[in-house]
Write a structure and sequence with these properties.
Layout (H helix, E strand, L loop, with lengths): L6 H24 L3 H28 L10 H32 L3 H32 L5
Helix pairs in contact: 1-2, 1-4, 2-3, 3-4
C-alpha cells in the first residue's frame, strides 16, 4: 500500500515520465510518425492526469514541506518553484486545447498552439523533478 509520505516520490516519477514521453512525442512527429506521436502524447497526458490526482491527494493530506537550503540556493529554489507553479496553472488549458486540436486532426491549429504547449509542459515536467530533488534529497527537511 502506498502511504501519503510516498506520494512526492511518485509525483516526481510521474513528472519525469511525462517529460520523457513528451520528448518521445516530439522526436516522433519530427520524424513524420504521427501515429507514434499520438501514442506518446496521449501517454504523456494520462501520466500527467495521474500526477495531478496524486499531487492533489498529497496536498489534501499533508502540510507544505519547508525548504531548508540557506543562502543563494533559496533564491534559485524559489525562482524554480514559482515559475513552475505559474506555468503549471497556465498549462492545463493549453494541453486540453492542444489535445483537442490534435485529436480533431486540425494540424495547422494544433501546431500553432503546440509550439507554446510543448516547451511549457516540458519545463513544468523537468522543474517538478528538480523541485522534488532539491526539497527532499539535496536539502531534506529536518525532523
Amino acid at each position: 500500500m502506498i502511504e501519503v509520505s510516498d506520494l512526492p516520490t511518485l509525483n516526481a516519477t510521474l513528472n519525469g515520465l511525462a517529460g520523457l514521453l513528451l520528448f518521445g512525442g516530439f522526436l516522433s512527429v519530427k520524424r513524420g510518425n504521427v501515429a507514434l506521436h499520438k501514442k506518446f502524447m496521449l501517454s504523456a497526458f494520462g501520466t500527467s492526469v495521474l500526477f495531478l490526482i496524486s499531487y492533489s491527494i498529497y496536498h489534501y493530506n499533508q502540510i507544505a514541506t519547508p525548504f531548508t537550503g540557506e543562502g543563494g540556493i533559496r533564491y534559485v529554489y524559489f525562482f524554480i518553484l514559482i515559475t513552475h507553479i505559474i506555468l503549471a496553472a497556465v498549462l492545463l488549458p493549453l494541453v486540453i486545447v492542444t489535445l483537442k486540436r490534435g485529436l480533431a486532426d486540425n494540424r495547422p491549429a494544433h501546431r500553432k498552439i503546440a509550439r507554446w504547449t510543448f516547451p511549457i509542459w516540458s519545463y513544468v515536467s523537468v522543474t517538478g523533478v528538480v523541485v522534488y530533488l532539491m526539497l527532499y534529497h539535496f536539502y531534506p527537511p529536518t525532523n
